[in-house]
TrEMBL record:
Domain HTH tetR-type: 19-79
Keyword annotations: DNA-binding, Transcription, Transcription regulation
Species this chain originates from: Planobispora takensis
Keyword DNA-binding on entry: yes
Name the UniProt record assigns to this protein: TetR family transcriptional regulator
SUPFAM superfamilies named among the record's database cross-references: Homeodomain-like (SSF46689)
A family per Pfam: TetR_C_14
Highest taxon of source: Bacteria
Keyword Lipid metabolism: no
Amino acid sequence: MYGDGMSAQTVGLRELKKRQTRENISNQATRLFLERGFDNVTIAEVAAAAQVAKMTVTNYFPRKEDLALDTHEVFVQSPARTVRERRPGESALAALREAYLAAVAGHDPIIGFSGPRFARMIVDSPALVARLREFHDDREKTLAAVLAEETGAGPEDITPRVAAVQLGGVLRLLFEETLRRTLDGHGDEEIAQVVAGYARTAFGALEPSLAGYAVRPTR
């Protein structure tokens, strides 16, 4: 039910307008960052390019870094969601390996296939490098929480955190390798072939400790 004369259509239009405004701000910011470098663009300049007030920009993006890295939620939640949705009889390790290889095949930007200009923008900005490190840290913590939930681990059980550090470390390593090769001028297809092989090696190295961990029960 919608009070104060508001209809579902009105609410829907407002949400659409918010999404469009957010997308416009993000697109204009990215264009400016790619042209001039992240550290050389101000919030006021982004607001002017998007034709909105400076306060509107900060309402949607409280941190300037998130104007460039507008994927925090997806980045952080993806491995946790993969674990939640794993098939009966499938371990967390197997599910994450399969999901990663599928993302490699699709050249997914979330795992590092961002293109050379975007990659250069990131590494040239200490602020963005630091923010990206926070993304990885947040992802590991979120994954640890889900592993604890899925395995029924108690608050004093360190196992989910140990597993998350290992799995998150592999994902972090592969992301950095993809970024490095992008900056070195390699094409997406070539990078995909290499990191897919690295992924099989890296996830395979975790088999002795994690192959039987967080396996979804079969019923």
